[in-house]
Write a sequence for this structure.
């Protein structure tokens, strides 16, 4: 986590940018942990969970969109 040069203010654009980046990374980490867990237990129990592929597919689409929105906002802030 980067150090802020002043006390945190939720209205500050730098604080909002950092918060959005942290949220995107947290979203990615939770997705990776749950997807790995589903895969692990599916292999462990030799289960055929038909629901796992659609759930993870839709979640990955949402994650892809979330990441692109965060990147787009970051680039828009940098460009004058």
């Amino acid at each position: 986590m980067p150090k802020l040069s002043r006390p945190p203010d939720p209205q500050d654009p730098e604080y909002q940018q950092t918060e959005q980046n942290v949220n995107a990374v947290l979203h990615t980490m939770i997705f990776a942990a749950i997807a790995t867990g589903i895969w692990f237990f599916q292999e462990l129990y030799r289960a055929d969970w038909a629901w796992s592929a659609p759930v993870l597919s839709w979640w990955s689409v949402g994650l892809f969109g979330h990441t692109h929105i965060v990147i787009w906002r970051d680039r828009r802030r940098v460009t004058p």
